Amino acid sequence: MTTRVHAGSGVIRLLEHDPTLLTRRVQTLQAFSSNRFFLGVGTGPPGPKPGKSVIAMLERLDELKEGFRAFPGGVGPPETYVATLKRGIARRAVGRTDGLLLNFCSPRHANGLIAAVKRQMVSPIEFACYLKIFLSSQSDENALRLLLQEFLNYDSIPQYHEMFLQDGTAKAISEIKQSDHWNSGSVEVPKELVRVSLANPRSEELHRYVQSFRKAGVSLPVIYPYFPADEKSEFRFETVKRILNVV
After folding, report:
1. What pLDDT does 1 receive?
2. Which of 143, 144, 152 is nearest to 176 (CA)?
3. Is 80 exceeded by the pLDDT of residue 247?
């Protein structure tokens, strides 16, 4: 099983890191993981001129990749993935990265971005997507509350709010925000959000969820499990094992 598991950085804000120090850290992680590390990068807050931030991030990525090629024998350069919410960023990144990394979106949104990018591709790349699932051994409602809180957290970030508007989920999130009932009473998740994320899914439900993204063109579904801070270690380990068996 360990030969199937790769280690990732999540998404780091590339422009906020010293290139030399980051290169050394990546070399160490790549060596310890037997060349199974992959690096996810993004711009972070886009600032007043998002286009310039994207260009600067991609130029920094090119510099890093030059440094990766100087790794000692036995340590190969890691795969790189550029985080993207918009088609413009995705188009600019094509040809300069091993893959694109989507996050917290529906299969429909993923399919639209992937289709737009494929029209300009010369060679194939991976299309990865973080698939967030929320889990709790205590109750389904605990898991559902984690899910809803995550939507509210991300909706407060302007670029994600814009994506939610495009994805058709912004209205459902707004209705949750206007009501505190979900935080104390019974919890019901709008169907628009269930296409994006799941809470305490059964194995067959999780399988269908992952397959919906594969059918949309996502070549690398990345299951991202979330647990309450006080969740038991045994439940965490058993859940990860179940995920590996399902997907």
Report:
1. 42
2. 152
3. no
